[in-house]
Amino acid sequence: MNSYYSNRIEGESTHPVNIERALRKDFSAKPETAKLQRLAVAHIDAERELEMLVTSEADALRSDFLLKAHYALYSRLPAEDRTTEDGDLVEPGSLRQREVAIQKHVAPTPASLPRFLERMTQIYGRLVGLDPLLYTIAAAHHRVVWTHPFRDGNGRSARLQTHCALYPLSGGLWSVNRGLARRRDDYYGLLSNADMPRQGDVDGRGNLSERMLREWCKFFIGQCDEQVSFMTRMLDITEMRERLQALISFRGHSSQYKYYRQEALMPLHHLIAAGGVSRADFIQMTGAGERTGRRLLAQFLKDGLLVSDSHRGDVEIGFPLDALNFLFPKLYPEAAVDLE
């Protein structure tokens, strides 16, 4: 989810079906689509690597973690995917060596970047306690984008770092990137506003506007709150049972899914609520008899609604992409749209 929405913010997302295919090493014959697929997979793999490195929110806000985020993403891309429109090759984890301007904002000079990064570690990397957590992460996100430390990939690296800083709190169950992508113009606009010079003596003590930074932080925290609320609704056990029932009923009318039967509702719902069970227990919970139960089991394994680590291992609930419009409506609205 983070990969899809982070790249969508950059205007370089690909259809969720293409991402799923790329994860199976099935890349498009179209060069531009294949490039977007490689970018999506690199982001997913980088995110998994970085999550394993998180020891605390403060640790993830350190500048060296930001450099790791950029390296984890760009080291997974071939040289042609790391070449800018100007012909510059982006080196993974390396600071930019040229001056840049983004709209009205002139970023710090290359020579000053190490000092800016060191100061960011001093301020944001000493986060203590829960109360300042979200606004500190929000402020750090702005500061990274404002500093623009890399030749390319600043937004993606900042969002990887932000995801990891939120990871001890979110557990990966919700993503602020979804909210930021759905309000992309506000995301960019409020970040840009926070770059404004101080507006008078009552607007903070630094060079930049404290009021606009506060507006950005308020927006960021609001997006976190919305995504928590959204996933709380999506993971509600009672509502999930109703969505499972709708999926089974809908597919049960298709010859492609001829073994979808209402007897499967209870064991599938049990897997969501309580976790994996043996194959024999799943068949028994259907109450449909051994032969029919095995057919149900085989159909769900084939379709990805059940997953297992081995040919005979326990089964757990799966969430295949083609079922998400039933199970998690609005999580990936584009997943319900067929590719041409």
From TrEMBL:
<keyword id="KW-0547">Nucleotide-binding</keyword>
<dbReference type="GO" id="GO:0005524">
    <property type="term" value="F:ATP binding"/>
</dbReference>
<feature type="binding site">
    <location>
        <begin position="187"/>
        <end position="188"/>
    </location>
    <ligand>
        <name>ATP</name>
    </ligand>
</feature>
<feature type="domain" description="Fido">
    <location>
        <begin position="61"/>
        <end position="222"/>
    </location>
</feature>
<dbReference type="InterPro" id="IPR040198">
    <property type="entry name" value="Fido_containing"/>
</dbReference>
<feature type="binding site">
    <location>
        <begin position="152"/>
        <end position="159"/>
    </location>
    <ligand>
        <name>ATP</name>
    </ligand>
</feature>
<dbReference type="InterPro" id="IPR003812">
    <property type="entry name" value="Fido"/>
</dbReference>
<keyword id="KW-0067">ATP-binding</keyword>
<dbReference type="InterPro" id="IPR036597">
    <property type="entry name" value="Fido-like_dom_sf"/>
</dbReference>
<feature type="active site">
    <location>
        <position position="148"/>
    </location>
</feature>
<dbReference type="Pfam" id="PF02661">
    <property type="entry name" value="Fic"/>
</dbReference>
<protein>
    <submittedName>
        <fullName>Fic family protein</fullName>
    </submittedName>
</protein>
